[in-house]
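Hi there, hope your week has been kind to you so far. Do you reckon you could talk me through the fold, stretch by stretch? I've dropped the whole record in just underneath, so have a look:
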Amino acid sequence: MTPTVIQRNGMTGSSGYGQIDNLTVGYDGNRIISVSDAASNVSYAFSHDFKNYTNQTRNMLMMETEI
């Protein structure tokens, strides 16, 4: 089964822990077409959380055509 929601906890600050990702993944068949993050933005550099800087749907489709 393909996950549509991925939730992760991790470092939110130098001494704090909590939710860093609450991802919703969109698929077209077995291909990922979008990823959105409903978790609060974590500015801590070492959190390793998902960064939604751009339109992920567009980027993933572009990557596929470049392969």
